[in-house]
Design goal:
Layout (H helix, E strand, L loop, with lengths): L1 E5 L3 H13 L4 H22 L11 H12 L7 H27 L2 H42 L3 H4 L6 E5 L5 E8 L2 E7 L3 H8 L1 H28 L2
Antiparallel strand pairs: 1-4, 2-3, 3-4
Helix pairs in contact: 1-8, 2-5, 2-8, 3-5, 4-5
């Protein structure tokens, strides 16, 4: 999955065109400066929603699981967690079959003694699924930090470099920025990034905030220039 932002956004471009008129930076330097700001806002935006926000909130995974259950929607579980679930459930089902066989073939006293075991086994199977779903949602919440890291290129990118790749600890590319003449592309490549962005509107907000800041800067410079002419 990818979230890609190109600098051909109408509102941002209009504000940027005015910004270039009033800044001491060259157009290319101004573009690099703004792209860096957007990358920082993206990092801050994703980080703000890690573990339910800042400060961290306890029980985020459990609350989301309960909300999904109440809404009648499911949760897609990643393969490694499903493998754990299937393995543990198979063991519980084997125990359940043994209990059922004992109840069918045993005496009335044995049947009565196995009833609590049967109920306990059923509860263990329910709790197993709840634990796996909770683990999945918990990983998604903690993974938002990795989404944020995809935009940390601005920390290490040298001035004048037209391309930089963000890599994780396993040297896998999770983000990149390419700045060319009059255009730029910021890309975050990591699983789940679109889902988180759709939920919180992080990308749109980052662009909007940077556009508004640019408009404010331009307005201030215009007012300063007008005040100078009136002296």
């Amino acid at each position: 999955m990818e979230v890609t932002i190109q600098s051909n956004l109408d509102a941002f471009n209009a504000a940027f065109a005015e910004y270039v008129k009033y800044t001491s930076k060259t157009p290319q330097e101004a573009l690099e400066h703004k792209v860096k700001n957007v990358g920082l806002r993206l990092w801050q935006g994703f980080t703000a929603h890690q573990f339910g926000g800042n400060p961290r909130q306890k029980g985020v995974a459990r609350r989301e699981m309960l909300a999904r259950t109440a809404a009648g929607t499911g949760t897609r579980i990643r393969a490694n967690l499903m493998a754990i679930y299937e393995r543990e459930r198979a063991a519980l089902m084997a125990t359940a079959r043994g209990i059922k066989r004992g109840m069918r073939l045993g005496t009335l006293d044995q049947w009565s003694a196995l009833r609590p075991e049967q109920a306990r086994n059923r509860e263990q199977r329910v709790k197993l699924w709840q634990r796996i779903v909770g683990a999945e949602i918990g990983l998604r919440q903690s993974g938002i930090g990795a989404l944020a890291a995809a935009f940390l290129w601005y920390r290490s990118r040298g001035k004048g470099e037209n391309q930089h790749l963000v890599q994780n600890r396993m040297c896998q590319t999770i983000g990149s920025v390419v700045v060319g003449q009059g255009g730029a592309v910021i890309t975050g490549k990591i699983a789940g990034i679109n889902t988180v962005d759709e939920r919180y509107g992080i990308v749109r907000q980052a662009i909007t905030d940077e556009t508004n800041d640019t408009i404010t800067y331009v307005r201030q410079r215009q007012e300063a220039a007008a005040a100078t002419l009136l002296r």
